[in-house]
């Protein structure tokens, strides 16, 4: 089987691999989501790897056009053993987290909402960053403090 050359604009500048979920940072550079999240969150870097300009980890914009071009290129090159990349699941939005936090204030909905928040947090670093921006950490700390206070009163 002959080797197929991947177009350079389909390659992540960090991993040097075909991008599966391209996202653009505020500096205008596009990376694969997994690679830039690892760069920003695991390595605690706050700069764009290419331009060295400061960026926020939550400012990742999905590059749908590039993803569709990559998917089309994969389909066209399927005969060469290239597998089509699946459409990624979008990360949670701040408004979705805020809605869950509002619903979690109701004792009837609390367990369901807390389980959903835990599930969202385990998916990826972008979701955790979004949860933090929406005030989830403060909400959870207040909830724990309230429950500890109630425990102390009942003893």
For this entry, give a set of tags.
155 residues, mainly alpha, three-stranded antiparallel β-sheet, 5% strand
Molecular structure report:
The protein is mainly alpha-helical and 155 residues long. Strands 2-1-3 form a three-stranded antiparallel β-sheet. The mean pLDDT is 87. The longest helix has 19 residues, at 136-154. Helix 3 runs antiparallel to helix 4 (110-123) and helix 4 (110-123) packs across helix 5 (125-133). It is elongated and about 70 Å long. 49% of the residues lie in helices and 5% in strands.
Task: Present the secondary structure layout.
Elements: E1 22-24, E2 30-32, H1 33-42, E3 61-62, H2 64-76, H3 94-104, H4 110-123, H5 125-133, H6 136-154
Antiparallel strand pairs: 1-2, 1-3
Helix pairs in contact: 3-4, 4-5
Summarize the structure.
The protein has 155 residues and is mostly helical.
Strand order of the largest sheet: 2-1-3
C-alpha Rg, in Å? 20 Å
User: Based on CA inertia axes, which overall geometry fits?
Assistant: elongated
Uncertain runs are none
**Average pLDDT reading:** 87
- Helical fraction equals 40-55%
Tally of helical runs: 6
Total number of β-strand segments? 3
> Which structural category fits the helices and strands?
mainly alpha
Query: What is the rounded distance between the termini?
Result: 72 Å
Q: What amount of the residues lies in strands?
A: 5-15%
Please outline the major beta sheet: 3 strands, antiparallel
Order of helices and strands: EEHEHHHHH
């Amino acid at each position: 089987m002959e080797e197929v050359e991947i177009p350079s604009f389909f390659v992540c500048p960090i991993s040097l691999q075909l991008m599966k979920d391209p996202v653009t940072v505020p500096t205008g550079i596009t990376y694969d989501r997994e690679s830039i999240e690892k760069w920003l969150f695991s390595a605690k870097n706050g700069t764009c790897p290419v331009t060295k300009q400061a960026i926020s980890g939550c400012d990742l914009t999905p590059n749908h056009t590039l993803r569709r071009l990559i998917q089309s290129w994969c389909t066209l090159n399927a005969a060469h053993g290239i597998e089509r990349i699946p459409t990624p699941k979008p990360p949670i939005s701040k408004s979705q987290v805020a809605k869950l936090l509002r619903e979690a204030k109701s004792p009837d909905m609390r367990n369901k909402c807390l389980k959903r928040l835990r599930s969202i947090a385990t998916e990826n670093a972008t979701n955790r960053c979004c949860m933090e921006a929406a005030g989830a950490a403060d909400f959870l700390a207040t909830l724990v403090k309230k429950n500890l206070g109630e425990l102390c009163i009942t003893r």
